[in-house]
Amino acid sequence: MTAKIIDGKSIAQEVRAEWKLRADALKARGITPGLAVIIVGEDAASKVYVANKVKACADLGLHSVHIALPADTSEAALLTKIAELNADPKIHGLLVQLPVPKHIDSSKVLDAISPDKDVDGFHPLNVGALATGNMRFAPCTPFGALTLLQKSGVSIEGKHAVVIGRSNIVGKPMALLLLQHNATVTICTSKTSDLAKHTRDADILVVATGKPKMITGDMIKPGAAVIDVGINRMENGKLCGDIDYDSVKEVAGWITPVPGGVGPMTITMLVANTIQSAERAAC
Ligand code: GUN
Predict the structure, then answer these.
(1) Is residue 275 part of a domain?
(2) Which atom of ligand 1 is nearest the CA belonging to 99?
(3) Annotated catalytic, 43?
(4) What are the pLDDT digits (tens) for 198-249?
């Protein structure tokens, strides 16, 4: 079997076009959805992510504010900036790019963002809302991975989904979203003993370990949908995911490439969450 390739770029475009209609409807009522992105410090990868978030807003005609603060910004100064944006009616979505420098307590930062503007879905209230089935903002990367499955016609209800990774940004919310869609969910980590025993039983496998090519074709159930959230730079400068694409694609039913799979969806869902937040504020 050769897997169907899930084209994240084209699905992201399709989803963005759907959300642009909703943004345009708001704009026709005089409300332009607005996103504020704060970055602290000089992390090169974070700078690229933030620039892409701001560009996605511009592409859809949204208002955006990009605040770049120096690495030695105090925690108090960052919290003051967040409070200012919480109170700004032109801003419907607010995020602080992670990681923040070590002298800043990231949980204080996440707690300070208004839950009503928390388009990352990282505030404890929104994490709790997702866990109790009252989701308000789904974290963007798992929301994007879920959307890829849905748009590709992969059925989720009643299926065994295995998530490898237990981060707050991907693994845990991914598992909750799949559970919410009536999958039977197993959460593993890269340290799970006999990991292959679990992965070979997965109808849906989502991999977010940060370990290049750790999941190989012999670990896959034939016909499974395999979503690769990893993005790793190899010695030759090329990007690869957490699955070994060449061997997995021979066994899986669906597969996401890296790049061009989950990546384009993350920012799309951020834009979607921002528009949805503006819709709620407009009610
Ligand atoms: N760093 C890596 N991924 C993310 C994300 O989705 N949101 C934020 N705020 N920071 C990140």
Answers:
(1) no
(2) 1
(3) no
(4) 999 999 999 999 999 999 999 999 999 999 999 999 999 999 999 999 999 9
